[in-house]
Amino acid sequence: MSRRVIVCGAGIVGAATAYHLARRGAEVVLVDRRGIAAAASGRAAGFLALDWCDGLATGPMARASFAMHAELGRELGVDIGYRRVRTSLVALERRGEQGAATGWVDGDARIRGQLGDERTTAQVDPRRLTRALVTAAERHGATMRLGIVEDVVVDAGIATGVRVDGETLAADAVVVAMGPWSAQAAPGLGLPPMLAVKGHSVLLSPREAMPAEALFVDDDHGGEAPEVLPRPDGTVYIAAGSQVTRTPDPPESVGFEPAAIDALRAVAGRLSTGLRGVDWLDPGACYRPLCADNVPAVGAVPGARGAHVATGHGPWGILLGPATGAALAERILDGASTTVDLGPFDPARLLRR
Ligand SMILES: Cc1cc2nc3c(=O)[nH]c(=O)nc-3n(C[C@H](O)[C@H](O)[C@H](O)COP(=O)(O)OP(=O)(O)OC[C@H]3O[C@@H](n4cnc5c(N)ncnc54)[C@H](O)[C@@H]3O)c2cc1C
């Protein structure tokens, strides 16, 4: 069994992996250049779906992770903003036309159909969840360290540590979970470059609480449909975006376009009169990490014994994070995973290309 494991990246994937490793007795050091949930894992919607990945490689992992999310608040002893939601598809009418008002969707929009209900869709606050996982990992002895990962040290085909800010930290196993920066921040592993999909988001503060209902907006928005998600804390999250890039900005300089935030606020106001002209906070953008074939890479890196990668979860990293962390911890500590079969996610497929 590997005893000392360095986990690079404190997003949802690194945090969940660190938590499962630490609770199983591994000595874990979690390293991030900006802190916990500083990138997409702090800015995502936190929408969860039981069966939206069915038929894809991620289907079984999504189902396993959806079930894990329901237990995590209790398990971690923290309010992670989890609740079940109903989910609707909404269409915006042409300007000036009034849609048939349905509850809070009372602007120039109408409900076009149900995409899910309380059995199949849910939400979590991703920043709270990621922080709670790290806190729980620390309770099991893990250490969080701020620092820039410069590379994984590979000696004669064996990963022996991680270079952080010029210092080499020795390890029996290494996990690279640095989102879209995973390949470039660990060049010694020879991982192929990743893709990243940029998305803008903002939180609105309506005067009255909105219901537990997620909305996906079927709109000619020039890309992915905006998603709107009222949170239990009274804020309403809205995001959209689909700019694909090969090299994301460095984590600390991910910028946002004010016009994209204005567009999101305008969509929100068209959906619901309760979201018009309200206060807003935390405007920004983040990147969904993607592998070239759209399937996450989770498992051992060929040619570097002891090195593992866990990234490429695209639009579903919050949903898939808990099962990814549990399965990878099993893979590292037991040699095989039981939570889900990691076969479809074998990083070797990317290196063969
Ligand atoms: C707008 C938007 C909405 C989304 N909504 C949802 C949703 O509703 N449901 C869902 O399931 N998913 C959603 N996602 C996707 C989800 O956010 C991501 O898949 C997930 O957060 C990726 O997590 P990660 O841990 O792999 O990477 P990240 O969260 O990107 O974390 C990577 C970490 O690595 C660190 N790092 C990078 N380089 C270095 C280095 N050299 N040294 C040290 N640390 C480094 C970064 O600082 C960062 O903290 C959304 C994404 C976006 C952009």
Task: Tell me what the structure shows.
There is one protein chain. The protein is α/β, with parallel strands linked by helices. It folds into two domains: 4-77 and 125-193 and 292-351, 3-Layer(bba) Sandwich (FAD/NAD(P)-binding domain); 84-120 and 195-290, D-Amino Acid Oxidase, Chain A, domain 2 (2-Layer Sandwich), CATH 3.30.9.10. Helix content is 24%, strand content 32%. It contains seven helices and 19 strands. The protein has helices at residues 12-23, 40-43, 59-76, 126-139, 258-271, 317-334, 348-351; strands spanning 4-8, 27-32, 47-49, 83-84, 86-92, 109-116, 121-123, 143-146, 149-155, 158-164, 167-170, 173-176, 195-205, 213-218, 227-230, 236-245, 279-290, 297-300, 307-311. The strands form four sheets. A seven-stranded mixed β-sheet has the order 6-5-14-15-16-13-17, covered by helices on one side. The protein has a six-stranded mixed β-sheet with strand order 8-2-1-12-19-18, covered by helices on one side. A hairpin with a 2-residue loop joins strand 10 and strand 11. It is elongated. The mean pLDDT is 94. The structure holds flavin-adenine dinucleotide. Residues 8-14, 31-34, 38-41, 43-47, 148-149, 177-179, 181, 185, 199, 201, 239, 251, 286, 288-289, 311, 313-319 line the site of flavin-adenine dinucleotide.
Give the SSE map:
Layout: E1 4-8, H1 12-23, E2 27-32, H2 40-43, E3 47-49, H3 59-76, E4 83-84, E5 86-92, E6 109-116, E7 121-123, H4 126-139, E8 143-146, E9 149-155, E10 158-164, E11 167-170, E12 173-176, E13 195-205, E14 213-218, E15 227-230, E16 236-245, H5 258-271, E17 279-290, E18 297-300, E19 307-311, H6 317-334, H7 348-351
Parallel strand pairs: 1-2, 1-12, 2-8, 5-14, 12-19
Antiparallel strand pairs: 3-7, 4-7, 5-6, 9-10, 10-11, 13-16, 13-17, 14-15, 15-16, 18-19
Helix pairs in contact: 1-4, 1-6, 3-6
Bound molecules: flavin-adenine dinucleotide.
Flavin-adenine dinucleotide binds near residues 10, 33, 39 and 288.
